[in-house]
Amino acid sequence: MLLWGCALVLSLSTGYRASVAFHLAARNGNVQRVMDLVEAEGTSKLDINGAFIRAAANGHVQVMEYLLEKGASDATGALVCAAINNQVPTVKYLTYHPCMSVDRTALKFAAVAAGNNDSFEAEFFLLTKLRHGVDDY
């Protein structure tokens, strides 16, 4: 009973609802909704990196670009999640973006994650990138 009561109070919290709406908008690629929520709530109340990773996992580069402007910085997490879901354009975006610090370790993590999830195209790209060097290709 106590657990249900806590869940009810939490679900009624405006901040919680905004956070859930924010992550759903990022996951679904709704750039305008993401922008509206950031303007209404501010970046300190929202999990910018979590939404960035959700957008990457679902291939929503426009949302990612906006969240980068707002301070998102988890390149490795986003790269791994994009690779797991075989989001090759997103993987390429993250590896080539000048603001993202993607090193060999991040590429290896993402390649293994892609391989373990049968994301063959992402795995091939990442292994090729590793073979030719981080700055090449």
Q: What's the short story on this structure?
A:
The protein has 137 residues and is an all-alpha fold. It contains 9 helices and no strands.
Secondary-structure map:
Blueprint: H1 2-12, H2 14-28, H3 31-41, H4 48-57, H5 61-69, H6 75-84, H7 88-96, H8 104-116, H9 120-132
Helix pairs in contact: 2-3, 2-4, 4-5, 4-6, 6-7, 6-8, 8-9
Percent of residues in helical segments?
Answer: over 70%
Largest pleated sheet = none
Structural class based on helices, strands and sheet pairing: mainly alpha
Total strands: the figure is: 0
Instruction: Give the low-confidence spans.
Output: 1-12
Strand content: under 5%
Order of helices and strands: HHHHHHHHH
Rg, Cα atoms, Å: 17 Å
The number of helices is 9
Task: Describe, in plain words, how this protein is organized in 3D.
This protein is mainly alpha-helical and 137 residues long. The chain contains nine helices and no strands. Helix 2 (14-28) packs parallel to helix 4 (48-57), helix 4 (48-57) runs parallel beside helix 6 (75-84) and helix 8 packs antiparallel against helix 9 (120-132).
Features:
single chain; 137 residues; mainly alpha; 9 helices; disordered N terminus
